[in-house]
Structures are given as C-alpha cells and as structure tokens.
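Hi P.,

Sorry for the delay on this. The queue was packed all week, but I finally got your sequence through. Input first:
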Amino acid sequence: MSETKEQDSPTADEIVDDLAEEMGVEDEESEAEEEEAEEEEAEEEESDGTGDMAGIEGVFAVKKGSKKKKKKKKKKKKKKPSTADTDGIFTPGAADEDIDLDDIDLGLDDDLQPKSPVNKLLIVIILALIGGGLVGAHFLTLDDTGHGLFHDIGMVITGEYRDHAQRERERIEEEHRQAQLDAMPRYGRLHISGSPRYALIRLNGEVPFGETTAGQWRELRTTPQTYAEDLSIDEVHQIEVDLAGHQTFEFTLHEDMWERTGGGEYFYSVSANLRPEDGDRYREFSARTTLGEGHGPFLGELTFNTEPAGAVILVNGYLVRDEDGQPIKTPAVLEEYWTLDIDFDEIREKEGFEDVRSIRDIDEFDIDLDDFELRERDFRVDTPPDQGVPVEIFLPDEDEEERVLYGTQLFRNMWECQWKDDDERARIPDSDPIQNHCNYVFEFDINFPELADYIERREEERERIAQQRASAAELLEAGPDGE
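Then the structure:
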C-alpha cells in the first residue's frame, strides 16, 4: 500500500520541478543544490525528532532514514493545467486522509489584517507620504504673483509682508481700474493742422463747427489750435482738407492709430500739407500771402447764400447796407457796401455803453442811428497776415435766445483766384504783380436749420459722453470691492 502511494503521488522534488518548469526556470544545478539542502535538513530533523517538518511529515511523505540519490531530471512535456494536477499539488503524502486547511497556521488573524510589523510600517509610511504630499501641495500652491505660502510666511518673519500686501492691493486696484477703462466707450481728441493755414476741414463728409467765446459758430479750419473733440476711436474717420487752388488732402484715421494718454484719453494729430494745383497757382498764392508783395490794394467779391433767405450781414461789426442805408439781406453778391459811419470807440466812452462791440449791441441801446453818415466800403484781399476780416450772418426775425449766429474771419489765404480771360490778361503789363491776373472771390453758404441741428446733436452727444464718464468715474472710485 505504501509503495503504491509512493508511485502514484508526486514527491516534493517533483512538485518543485513542475512548478519551476511552468515558471520557465531551467537552472538544474541550482535546483539540485536546493534539493540536497532540503534532504540534509530532513535527516537532521529526523534524528532529533524536532523541527518544523516533524509536524507536517505526512504532507511531504519523506522516508525516514533514507537519503535520496541525486537524480537526473527528465524534462516533462508541458501539460495543460487541469483539476487533477491541482489536486496533486495540494494533496501529497503517504496517507489518503484529506488535509484540513483550517488546521494550517498561515499567520493571519480572522480579520485578515497583517500581523507582521514590517507590513504595518509600510502602510504607515505610505499614508505619511500621501498626507505630506497634500500638505506640501497646499504650501507650495502659487498665488497670482507666483509666490506660495512659504514665501508669505518668510515675509512675515522678515517684516516685509505689510509692504507686500499693500503692493498687492495696489496691483488689484490698478487692474480693476484698467478693466473699467477698457469697458468704457472710448473717445479721442483729433488735432488738425497743416499748411497753408485756414483750409476747410470735412470730417466724415460733414463740415464740423465750433463755438467761439462770443457765442458764434464757425467752420473748423486748419490752424495750430484746431481740434475735433469726442471722436469715437472704435469708428473709422475720413478727413478731407480743402483750400482754393490746392489739391484736396485726404486721410483715414483707424482705431489702432490713436495714442493713449496718461489720463486714459486718446489723441491723434494730423498735419495736412496741401500742394498747389500747378505752377501758376503756386506763384499766385505765394505772392498773395507774402507781406508787401505787389502794389495793392487787391479787392474781391463776396457771395452770401443762406437757407432760409433774409439773413443780415455784419462786416467788422458794421451792418452791411446798400447806398440808401437799407440793410442788405441774403442772397447777395457784393463788391462794395455801405455802413453807418459809427465810431465805436467814441460810443464806448459814454456812460452805460462800455460793452458795445458791434451794431448788434448798438441796437439794444437808445442811440439815434439817423445821426450817422453812410460810408462806402469794399472787401480787401490783402489784409494783414493772420488778421482776417470778421464776418457775421444771422436771421434777424428769430427770437434772440434761439437765434443761431454764424461768424468767421476771412483771411487772405481763403480767397480764390479766378483767372481773368486771356484777352484781359494780355493787356496787363508784364511788370504788374500776378495778383492783377486774378478776380478774387469767396462764397458764404449757410444752412441755418442744418447748423441748428448740428448744434443740437453735438450738445446731446456731449451730455451722453459726460454721463458715461461720470458713471465710469463712480466705478473707478468704488474700487474692486464696490465700496
């Protein structure tokens, strides 16, 4: 019976060989050394009856008192795992009795918690690493300035944290301010200068007007101090500059061309340098605008057109009249005109008349205009440089509070030279100045309803922009906390 069991049941060496073969271990010398060591250990334990193997003798079925010879292993064919093979592994021995696994002490408690102190230590180390990583991540987390909590603690120790906090608050406030400014509708101030001076400006196809200190409205012309206010920088603006005898200057202003000032406003300056149409125009204009050039005086003709008709005209503060002393009303084409020979200096010397500046003021005072003589006058082209002739035009029948006053100055640059016909020019001596070859003209064309509408739109736009800026100022003053 014993021999049969020994032949049918695999020995410990065979079990180890099978496992090694399945795991791909082919080092026979190493395996042989392990077997020899196991046999020697079994003999020692058998001799004294002690040792761990004594209690599980039936499991490995090692014969007492016999020493196995070193066998030459035969390579077995790899078999497909089966239940029978598994049974052979877990049921070896010399007896048929089944082995109760519950009787084998595997070193585990009922709750499967490891008893080994090494395992407990490993678990503690892993938990410590995880916790340390979370804490480190908190301390190393960077704020908006690129600094972490360790940096802040260091500044508290060195006494620098208060200054850092103040700088951080200022940075946040500046970012808030900039965000509010960027959200505001943006407007710019356009400076328009150029050469020659007093050329007419058109902005987006419309002639812009400005109000003088005397309450008059005049077209914008190129001077060193000409500005167009409150232009939206988000829009494209077309600029045209015209002057008689010169080529039109055209310019397009885009959003990215504006320059931002320190106060958050936007500014742009354009210089319109006009070129004469040809050489004759250049020579005539140079002679006309040069002081003392020629043998003047050079006279011109003025055309006055208004919508509606019936406007009166003041030149140099005098009401323009005909030879009978009656006020001339538009439309009118004039080479000469008459005014009452009033000496405003003498009138201002009288008590109560100190504020008299023109005939418009005189009409408000108790002065008998029949006491003054009529005087014939003409329109001179060659006025002193940069000293124009004041011209005012208004509708006399309108209520004074609603009346729109147009007023400008007529400079020598603004006159247009219309060449005389060839026959007339042929009779002019060669020694005469080139100005004698010209008929000088200038035209006033005023549409009062359109001018009144322009003024109204301009005031509404200014009020709207003022409200926007006030709202933005409140937001900026409130700061990022809204306080």
